[in-house]
Amino acid sequence: MIKKPMDKIKITSTVIYYIVKKLNEELLLGYINSVQTIDKDVWKIKIHKQKTKELIVTENICIIPENSFPVINILGFEKYLKKKLANQRIKEIYQHKNNKVICFKLDHYNLIFELFSNSNIILTDLEFKIITSKQKEEWKDRTIQKGATYLFPSGEDIKLKTTNEINIEIKAMNKSETIKYLSKNYNIAPVELNEILNDNRELIKSVFNNYNLPEPGLKYISEKNTYIVSNKGENIFKTFENIYATIYEKKEIVKESKKKNKIIDILTAQKSKKEEFENNIKQFDAEGEFIYTNFALVDAINIQIKKALDQKTPEKEIIAKINTFFKNKKIKLKINKINQKTKLYEIENLE
Question: Is 157 helix (H, G, I), strand (E, B) or coil?
């Protein structure tokens, strides 16, 4: 059951652990082909390994979907990454300690995804000197900006400890104190720890068991809008593919609707232009027929106007004399105006 797809989804670092395991299976030793924009905070990285696969990177998760995701025009940051990362081979993919941070070690760079807080994408050289990042950030003990040395978030890796070592550390603590301690020192989410209702010794065993699940899935904690890892539950990649596909399928419908409306506007404008063109043809036909029928008269008027203009007779005087001539001869025509610059005049048929 997919919950609240439009809310900002939260996941725990243990979920990241299994995501990284899957990314290694699917992408290790592949080559980066392209970096594209799906949305303001969602990216697609195309990676070729036997066949091309898509890595979808959001603010807090990375997935390899079964189906392709639509893209928009590549934005500036993505254009830069695309240029830098073209044909870079993926030599290593790892989660730093138990942080929500995934690092791709490439031929010449480290590509780092921070999937917490405001999230960030950081590109460094192999010595971790920052080349660029999606955004600048400053923390109490670390700074993300061009030229600085990238420092991973602090914390210890619980996976490098034994259950006995951890039990010694928490020996004098009650459950509440233990949860606070594990969260602060090992970055294990309290929401995940609160799901384990045993005493401290069993709690630690369950924490370690969470890193050895044969078929890891997801469990949704609705009051926290958070997914935690579960021995039974939805497939991790498929769950998030369904959520984001729902979001971007809707975006595509909106996009198609706008495209359809644009086509309708173009067709309406074309129809209007066609009608205007047909009306102009009718008008030109009528004017042509009038000139043909009254050719001798029109030619005589042209001669008289030219003479008057050459003699610098005022325009109003010319119009008045010709219209008086028409009236006396009972000719149902009228001169409305004369353009002395272009030597053209407007004649009206009064019939």
Answer: coil
Alpha-carbon gap, residue 26 to 37, rounded angstroms: 21
Report residues of the chain scoring pLDDT below 70.
1-7, 197-199, 246-299, 340-343, 351
Distance CA 148, CA 112 (A): 14
Pick from 197, 210, 206, 213: which is nearest to 167 by CA? 206
- Tens of pLDDT, residue by residue over 264-305, are 666 666 666 666 666 665 665 555 555 555 656 666 777 777
Nearest to 65 by CA among 41, 45, 81, 39: 45
Question: Can you state the angle between helices 295-310 and 236-293, rounded to 10 degrees?
Answer: 90
Domain boundaries defined on the chain: 294-349
Q: What is the pLDDT of residues 43-80, one digit of tens each?
A: 999 999 989 999 999 888 999 998 888 887 777 889 99
